[in-house]
Amino acid sequence: METIDNNTQLENFRKEVSEWLEGNCPMSMRQPLNDDSDYFWGGRDVKYKSEDQKKWFEVMKAKNWIVPHWPKEYGGGGLSKEENKIFLAEMKRLGCRLPLFSFGISMLGPALLKFGTEEQKKEHLTKITAGEIRWCQGYSEPNAGSDLASLQTKAEDKGDHFVVNGQKVWTSYADQADWIFCLVRTDFEAKQGGISFLLFDMATEGVSTSPIKLISGKSPFCETFMDNVKVPKKNLLGELNRGWTIAKYLLTHEREMISAMGNASTTAPLHETAIASIGLQNGKLNDSFIRSDIAKWSINKAAFDITLLRAMDEFKAGQSLGAASSFFKYYGTELNKSRLELLMAIGGFEGLAWEGEAFNNGQLSRSFLRSKGNSIEGGTTEVQLNIVAKHILGLPSR
Ligand SMILES: Cc1cc2nc3c(=O)[nH]c(=O)nc-3n(C[C@H](O)[C@H](O)[C@H](O)COP(=O)(O)OP(=O)(O)OC[C@H]3O[C@@H](n4cnc5c(N)ncnc54)[C@H](O)[C@@H]3O)c2cc1C
């Protein structure tokens, strides 16, 4: 009896979500994303691409559905795991874009919820759900990428504050971010055991950034320099010298985020793009090789999606997938890279365009080049396979 009631409640919730989304999500926010400029990132220097984008963000914020599964006291929607699953499925079914893209939501938030003090949660989570603060990630350094625990940026204890000196690299959107979550060395004797996790304002005196240009012609990330940056002690997340545990936990969430790239709700289905570009003959795509590649890709993507859903079901609400996130990161990024390779093949000569409004300023070839970074960011493919070998397959390290 109880199960039936619960199912009925969930069915009612699905109806409610569906009707609300239909009524409130502008049609232009139900189209696949064309390029990076379609993402809304929020932050102090807020920029909307269109009135619809602004409206969509504002109605979702008023409904507390920017981060529907976070607790209500921090601006979340307080949805249960089942309700959140329904919410995401309806968003996907209707093709609704996410109202806000934020490293605060996908990376820092889960770490704050698990390791933050009540004061830190109140201060930072509420600003993340309100889209007020844009965060960046200060992990990698020139000599600490895969071997992250070799990082050298140091934070010296000065009583009520730390003084931070050092350099980060590949810091995505550091030049546009308001705050940074940053790994620092607070003990030079221990490797992992000497790392702490600090949060600070990018407007603090002594913080500077220098954009790095990519092969795609864009500069989505920077070198970030810290020169005698004063950080109040209350901005230490977790305990002193215990930042490595937080860093690893956050990485599992980052990998989940990266593995969901190429999600069908935000990108046009491959077969539709192919039909529009290549055309049909006798009801079939007029290129048998591409038709067969799209079929293979779509089967792999469907298998990936249901495996991801199954894995999510097996974990409790709010928990990370742990080592399994490495498997999903690896395979999800391979899928995204092959999706872009297929789009290039579908585009033919037009796919090679680099400039010109008729070719969307070369967005396709730029995205294709950008996708190569997927198997590096958030930990390289080789490192993910090492984790799968050791922690999932139980193979010996050496
Ligand atoms: C698009 C993009 C965005 C990024 N954004 C951020 C960001 O916002 N913040 C941030 O802190 N960092 C960011 N990074 C950095 C990213 O985390 C690092 O590039 C990554 O961890 C690899 O480090 P590395 O570049 O120093 O390469 P290295 O660690 O020097 O690796 C070089 C090569 O050696 C291989 N290798 C290294 N160790 C092993 C091993 N043990 N076993 C097998 N092979 C190994 C690697 O797989 C790789 O092929 C970003 C990177 C990219 C590409």
What's the alpha carbon Rg, rounded to whole Å? 22 Å
Largest sheet: 4 strands, mixed
Coarse shape? globular
Bound molecules: flavin-adenine dinucleotide
Q: How many DSSP helices?
A: 11
Q: Give me the secondary-structure category.
A: alpha+beta
Describe the structure.
The chain is built from eleven helices and ten strands. With 398 residues, it is α+β, with helices and mostly antiparallel strands. It has a four-stranded mixed β-sheet with strand order 1-4-5-8. The longest helix has 27 residues. The mean pLDDT is 93.
Which terms would index this structure?
398 residues, alpha+beta, 4-stranded mixed sheet, 4-stranded antiparallel sheet, 11 helices, 43% helix, 15% strand, binds flavin-adenine dinucleotide
